[in-house]
Every structure is written in structure tokens, then in C-alpha cells.
């Protein structure tokens, strides 16, 4: 079991540090709202991943993988949500560019940060399919599948929280340099385009 846990941890670490939507979300949230808000976004991301992991261990994501309609409905909903986040970021940047005074961020509260991290994961069916296909490969022969899968999910969650904490720490240190209105507008534009790109990518996934 120890060997299986170490092998999964190594794989999960590589997947975790690969740049993607979750890392960008924590980075952007920290830069706009501070480290505490970034940590809460990371907790939302982790909660979403754990929810998918439990569903996968219980066999629920197998139903999702078997049903093209269910997969597509969740995929389109997730894509629309990401497009909404991207469009809102671009609109906020435009308001800052046209207003005489700096416009405060609208989505940096603790509740909304956690909710955004959670929803972006729950509406991404690829995460469910990922857990369903990856975790069983590391379960040793004779080991209880459900319990072992949950253990792997907790390992992945712990690695994710550690990585996001480092991301938030670095982003928090850089936040002062990006406090100027022009820099914050540019940040909103970049993250808005990135959210839209992730949304379009999810929308075209089969």
C-alpha cells in the first residue's frame, strides 16, 4: 500500500503543478483579493475535487461517462460558467478603463471566492472522468477500492492545497506591485481571456 501511495503521490504532484484553470483561478483571486481570499478559492477547488473523487469511488462518475447526454449537459454548463467569468473580468477591466476612479473588484469576497473555486470544478465533467480512470490504476490487488480511492483523493487534495498555498504566497508578495489601476486592468484582461479560452476548450471537449 505504501508503494502505491508514493506512486500515486508522484503522479498527482506532477498533475497538480501543471498550469491550468485551478492554478490561474487561485492566482487571479489572490492578486485581486489578497492571500486569505486566494486560500479560500483554493479550498473551494479542493472541495470540488474531493466531491468528484467521492463520486468516482462510489461509481457515480461511471454513469456520467456512460451517458453522453449527462456529460454534455454538465460540460456545456461548465463552459458557460467559465465564459461568464471571463466576460465579467473583461467588462470589469473596461469599466476601470473608462471610469474616472478605480472600480473595486466585485468578486473578492470570501464566500464568492470559495464558491467560484467549487463551482468551476463541479461543472467540469473531465475531473470526474479523470478520477474514475486514474485512481483505480494505483489500487493494489486485494485492497478495498472505495477506501483506497478516498485515500488517494485525500493525498491529491493535500498536494493541491500545498501547491495553491505556494501560489497564493507568491501572488500575495507580487500584489503590491500590481496595485496600480493600469496593472490591475491588464490583469483582468489577461485572466478574462484565459477564462474564455478554458471555457471554449471545455465546450469543444468530447
TrEMBL record:
Residue spans crossing the bilayer: 36-66, 73-91, 150-174
GO MF term list: amino acid transmembrane transporter activity
Ranges in a coiled coil: none
Domain of life: Bacteria
The UniProt record lists the keyword Acetylation: no
GO cellular component, one term: plasma membrane
Sorted UniProt keywords: Cell membrane, Membrane, Transmembrane, Transmembrane helix
Chief localisation class: membrane
Xref: InterPro entries: LeuE-type
Keyword Cell inner membrane in record: no
Topology of this chain in the membrane: Multi-pass membrane protein
Pfam family name, one: LysE
Cellular location(s): Cell membrane
Protein name: Threonine/homoserine/homoserine lactone efflux protein
Top-level taxonomy: Bacteria, Bacillati, Actinomycetota, Actinomycetes, Streptosporangiales
